[in-house]
Specification:
Blueprint lengths: L3 E3 L6 E2 L1 H8 L10 E2 L8 E3 L9 E3 L17 H4 L14 H11 L2 H15 L6 H14 L12 H5 L5 E3 L4 E8 L16 E6 L5 E8 L2 H7 L8 H9 L2
Antiparallel strand pairs: 1-2, 1-3, 4-5, 6-7, 7-8, 8-9
The structure holds zinc ion (ZN).
Protein backbone atom coordinates (compact mmCIF):
# COMPACT_ATOMS: atom_id res chain seq x y z
CA UNK A 1 0.00 0.00 0.00
CA UNK A 2 1.18 3.48 -0.79
CA UNK A 3 -0.13 5.60 2.06
CA UNK A 4 -0.14 5.21 5.83
CA UNK A 5 -0.87 7.49 8.76
CA UNK A 6 2.00 9.37 10.36
CA UNK A 7 2.45 7.99 13.88
CA UNK A 8 -1.29 7.31 14.26
CA UNK A 9 -4.05 5.51 12.33
CA UNK A 10 -5.55 9.00 12.07
CA UNK A 11 -2.27 10.67 11.17
CA UNK A 12 -1.42 12.52 7.99
CA UNK A 13 -1.30 10.26 4.93
CA UNK A 14 2.30 9.96 3.76
CA UNK A 15 4.12 7.74 1.27
CA UNK A 16 6.85 5.47 2.65
CA UNK A 17 9.55 7.83 1.41
CA UNK A 18 7.66 10.82 2.80
CA UNK A 19 7.36 9.06 6.13
CA UNK A 20 11.09 8.34 6.38
CA UNK A 21 11.94 11.87 5.38
CA UNK A 22 9.75 13.30 8.12
CA UNK A 23 10.37 10.74 10.86
CA UNK A 24 14.08 10.28 10.23
CA UNK A 25 16.05 7.12 9.66
CA UNK A 26 16.07 6.42 13.39
CA UNK A 27 12.29 6.61 13.66
CA UNK A 28 12.02 3.25 15.41
CA UNK A 29 14.28 4.41 18.22
CA UNK A 30 12.18 7.55 18.47
CA UNK A 31 9.07 5.33 18.55
CA UNK A 32 7.52 6.97 15.51
CA UNK A 33 5.72 4.50 13.27
CA UNK A 34 3.46 4.42 10.21
CA UNK A 35 -0.06 3.06 10.80
CA UNK A 36 -2.40 1.33 8.39
CA UNK A 37 -5.71 3.20 7.93
CA UNK A 38 -7.62 -0.08 7.64
CA UNK A 39 -6.43 -2.37 10.46
CA UNK A 40 -4.91 0.56 12.40
CA UNK A 41 -1.80 -1.52 13.12
CA UNK A 42 1.85 -0.53 12.73
CA UNK A 43 3.26 -1.29 9.27
CA UNK A 44 6.78 -0.89 7.90
CA UNK A 45 8.34 0.89 4.94
CA UNK A 46 9.78 -0.97 1.96
CA UNK A 47 11.59 -0.01 -1.22
CA UNK A 48 12.58 3.45 -0.03
CA UNK A 49 16.21 2.98 -0.95
CA UNK A 50 15.86 0.38 -3.69
CA UNK A 51 16.12 1.49 -7.32
CA UNK A 52 14.22 -1.63 -8.37
CA UNK A 53 11.17 -1.31 -6.14
CA UNK A 54 8.76 1.60 -5.71
CA UNK A 55 8.39 2.71 -2.12
CA UNK A 56 5.42 1.32 -0.23
CA UNK A 57 4.32 -0.05 3.13
CA UNK A 58 4.00 -3.68 4.13
CA UNK A 59 2.19 -5.49 6.94
CA UNK A 60 3.84 -7.87 9.37
CA UNK A 61 3.15 -11.51 8.51
CA UNK A 62 0.15 -13.22 10.10
CA UNK A 63 0.70 -16.42 11.99
CA UNK A 64 -1.26 -19.56 11.20
CA UNK A 65 -3.75 -19.07 14.00
CA UNK A 66 -5.24 -15.96 12.35
CA UNK A 67 -8.51 -16.53 10.48
CA UNK A 68 -7.95 -15.34 6.88
CA UNK A 69 -11.11 -13.25 7.14
CA UNK A 70 -9.26 -11.27 9.81
CA UNK A 71 -6.42 -10.39 7.45
CA UNK A 72 -6.14 -6.69 6.74
CA UNK A 73 -7.60 -5.79 3.36
CA UNK A 74 -4.50 -3.69 2.69
CA UNK A 75 -2.04 -6.49 3.45
CA UNK A 76 -0.66 -8.79 0.76
CA UNK A 77 -2.30 -11.73 2.50
CA UNK A 78 -5.65 -9.91 2.42
CA UNK A 79 -5.22 -8.88 -1.19
CA UNK A 80 -4.51 -12.48 -2.14
CA UNK A 81 -7.53 -13.83 -0.29
CA UNK A 82 -10.33 -14.50 -2.74
CA UNK A 83 -13.03 -13.22 -0.41
CA UNK A 84 -11.19 -10.08 0.68
CA UNK A 85 -9.53 -8.91 -2.51
CA UNK A 86 -12.54 -7.04 -3.87
CA UNK A 87 -13.20 -5.32 -0.55
CA UNK A 88 -11.00 -2.29 -0.91
CA UNK A 89 -11.30 1.44 -1.22
CA UNK A 90 -9.14 3.84 -3.15
CA UNK A 91 -9.51 6.55 -0.56
CA UNK A 92 -10.06 6.98 3.16
CA UNK A 93 -12.33 9.40 4.94
CA UNK A 94 -11.39 8.86 8.58
CA UNK A 95 -13.51 11.61 10.10
CA UNK A 96 -16.57 10.46 8.23
CA UNK A 97 -15.92 6.91 9.45
CA UNK A 98 -16.66 7.93 13.03
CA UNK A 99 -19.84 9.76 11.99
CA UNK A 100 -20.99 6.88 9.82
CA UNK A 101 -20.56 4.33 12.60
CA UNK A 102 -22.63 6.55 14.91
CA UNK A 103 -25.26 6.85 12.21
CA UNK A 104 -25.33 3.08 11.74
CA UNK A 105 -26.14 2.59 15.44
CA UNK A 106 -29.15 4.89 15.42
CA UNK A 107 -32.19 2.81 16.24
CA UNK A 108 -33.91 2.86 12.86
CA UNK A 109 -30.67 2.05 11.02
CA UNK A 110 -29.50 -0.79 13.27
CA UNK A 111 -32.96 -2.40 13.18
CA UNK A 112 -33.04 -2.20 9.39
CA UNK A 113 -29.49 -3.53 9.12
CA UNK A 114 -30.32 -6.54 11.26
CA UNK A 115 -33.56 -7.30 9.40
CA UNK A 116 -31.84 -6.94 6.03
CA UNK A 117 -29.10 -9.43 6.99
CA UNK A 118 -31.69 -11.77 8.48
CA UNK A 119 -33.77 -11.63 5.28
CA UNK A 120 -30.80 -12.49 3.11
CA UNK A 121 -29.51 -15.22 5.42
CA UNK A 122 -32.92 -16.74 6.18
CA UNK A 123 -34.77 -17.24 9.46
CA UNK A 124 -32.64 -18.97 12.07
CA UNK A 125 -29.39 -18.30 10.18
CA UNK A 126 -28.44 -14.88 11.53
CA UNK A 127 -28.11 -14.96 15.32
CA UNK A 128 -27.10 -11.84 17.19
CA UNK A 129 -23.66 -13.36 17.85
CA UNK A 130 -23.05 -13.42 14.09
CA UNK A 131 -24.12 -9.79 13.76
CA UNK A 132 -21.68 -8.93 16.53
CA UNK A 133 -18.87 -10.85 14.80
CA UNK A 134 -19.27 -9.07 11.46
CA UNK A 135 -19.50 -5.64 13.12
CA UNK A 136 -16.22 -6.38 14.91
CA UNK A 137 -14.67 -7.37 11.60
CA UNK A 138 -15.96 -4.15 10.02
CA UNK A 139 -14.27 -2.28 12.88
CA UNK A 140 -10.99 -4.14 12.41
CA UNK A 141 -11.05 -3.35 8.69
CA UNK A 142 -12.32 0.18 9.24
CA UNK A 143 -14.97 -0.27 6.58
CA UNK A 144 -16.73 2.80 8.01
CA UNK A 145 -13.96 5.04 6.71
CA UNK A 146 -14.14 3.90 3.11
CA UNK A 147 -14.66 6.83 0.80
CA UNK A 148 -18.30 7.53 -0.14
CA UNK A 149 -20.01 4.75 1.80
CA UNK A 150 -23.63 5.57 2.69
CA UNK A 151 -25.11 3.96 5.78
CA UNK A 152 -27.44 1.62 3.86
CA UNK A 153 -24.51 -0.04 2.06
CA UNK A 154 -22.89 -1.16 5.34
CA UNK A 155 -25.20 -4.20 5.83
CA UNK A 156 -24.29 -5.47 2.35
CA UNK A 157 -20.63 -5.25 3.34
CA UNK A 158 -21.21 -6.92 6.71
CA UNK A 159 -22.63 -9.94 4.91
CA UNK A 160 -19.32 -10.40 3.09
CA UNK A 161 -17.31 -10.86 6.26
CA UNK A 162 -18.11 -14.38 7.43
CA UNK A 163 -19.58 -17.76 6.58
CA UNK A 164 -23.11 -18.56 7.74
CA UNK A 165 -24.79 -21.78 8.72
CA UNK A 166 -28.06 -22.85 7.12
CA UNK A 167 -29.61 -24.32 10.24
CA UNK A 168 -32.41 -26.41 8.72
CA UNK A 169 -30.52 -27.95 5.84
CA UNK A 170 -27.12 -27.94 7.58
CA UNK A 171 -24.72 -26.38 5.11
CA UNK A 172 -22.42 -23.36 5.11
CA UNK A 173 -23.01 -20.43 2.82
CA UNK A 174 -21.53 -17.00 2.29
CA UNK A 175 -22.01 -13.89 0.18
CA UNK A 176 -19.84 -12.46 -2.56
CA UNK A 177 -20.07 -9.28 -4.61
CA UNK A 178 -20.78 -9.67 -8.26
CA UNK A 179 -18.42 -6.95 -9.47
CA UNK A 180 -15.02 -6.77 -11.15
CA UNK A 181 -12.51 -7.52 -8.37
CA UNK A 182 -10.39 -4.50 -9.33
CA UNK A 183 -13.27 -2.08 -8.86
CA UNK A 184 -13.06 -0.29 -5.50
CA UNK A 185 -16.12 -0.41 -3.29
CA UNK A 186 -17.11 3.22 -3.52
CA UNK A 187 -19.74 4.06 -6.08
CA UNK A 188 -20.48 0.38 -6.48
CA UNK A 189 -24.15 1.08 -5.87
CA UNK A 190 -24.50 4.13 -8.07
CA UNK A 191 -24.93 2.31 -11.34
CA UNK A 192 -27.49 -0.22 -10.15
CA UNK A 193 -25.74 -2.96 -12.04
CA UNK A 194 -24.07 -5.00 -9.31
CA UNK A 195 -25.45 -7.66 -7.02
CA UNK A 196 -24.61 -9.55 -3.87
CA UNK A 197 -24.84 -13.31 -4.41
CA UNK A 198 -25.34 -16.13 -1.96
CA UNK A 199 -23.09 -19.13 -2.63
CA UNK A 200 -22.40 -22.50 -1.04
CA UNK A 201 -19.19 -22.12 0.97
CA UNK A 202 -17.73 -25.46 -0.12
CA UNK A 203 -18.49 -25.56 -3.86
CA UNK A 204 -18.88 -21.84 -4.60
CA UNK A 205 -22.04 -22.61 -6.57
CA UNK A 206 -24.88 -20.10 -6.42
CA UNK A 207 -27.68 -20.72 -3.95
CA UNK A 208 -30.95 -20.41 -5.85
CA UNK A 209 -32.74 -17.05 -5.50
CA UNK A 210 -29.75 -15.81 -3.49
CA UNK A 211 -28.89 -12.81 -5.68
CA UNK A 212 -29.97 -9.32 -4.60
CA UNK A 213 -29.44 -6.00 -6.30
CA UNK A 214 -27.24 -3.41 -4.55
CA UNK A 215 -29.43 -0.33 -4.57
CA UNK A 216 -31.26 1.70 -1.98
CA UNK A 217 -34.78 0.72 -3.06
CA UNK A 218 -33.96 -2.97 -2.71
CA UNK A 219 -32.38 -2.27 0.67
CA UNK A 220 -35.33 -0.29 1.99
CA UNK A 221 -37.78 -2.93 0.81
CA UNK A 222 -35.87 -5.87 2.34
CA UNK A 223 -35.26 -4.05 5.62
CA UNK A 224 -38.69 -2.56 6.27
CA UNK A 225 -40.19 -5.31 8.40
CA UNK A 226 -38.78 -4.17 11.76
CA UNK A 227 -42.00 -3.75 13.76
CA UNK A 228 -41.95 -7.27 15.24
CA UNK A 229 -38.58 -6.78 16.97
CA UNK A 230 -39.12 -6.62 20.73
CA UNK A 231 -37.85 -3.69 22.78
CA UNK A 232 -35.44 -5.95 24.62
CA UNK A 233 -33.99 -7.26 21.36
CA UNK A 234 -33.63 -3.73 19.99
CA UNK A 235 -31.75 -2.83 23.16
CA UNK A 236 -29.38 -5.73 22.56
CA UNK A 237 -28.81 -4.45 19.01
CA UNK A 238 -28.03 -0.98 20.34
CA UNK A 239 -25.62 -2.45 22.89
CA UNK A 240 -23.45 -3.83 20.10
CA UNK A 241 -22.12 -0.30 19.64
ZN1 LIG B 1 -3.75 -2.97 7.66
Amino acid sequence: MFYAGYNSPYGEALTASGFEKRAGIDHKEKKIFPYCFACQQIVFTRGTISPNMSDHYAHYTYDDSVDPMDYCIESNAGKNNKYLKGLFTDGWNLENGILLRNEFFKEDNIKRAYIFCLKLCGTGNFPLSTFERVIKRADAKNIWSYKNIPVWVIPYILLLLTDFHESKKDYQFRFILNKPSKLPLQNLWIKNEYTINKIFSDSGADVRYGSKSIDIDTYLDLSKDTAWLSDSFVNRLLELE
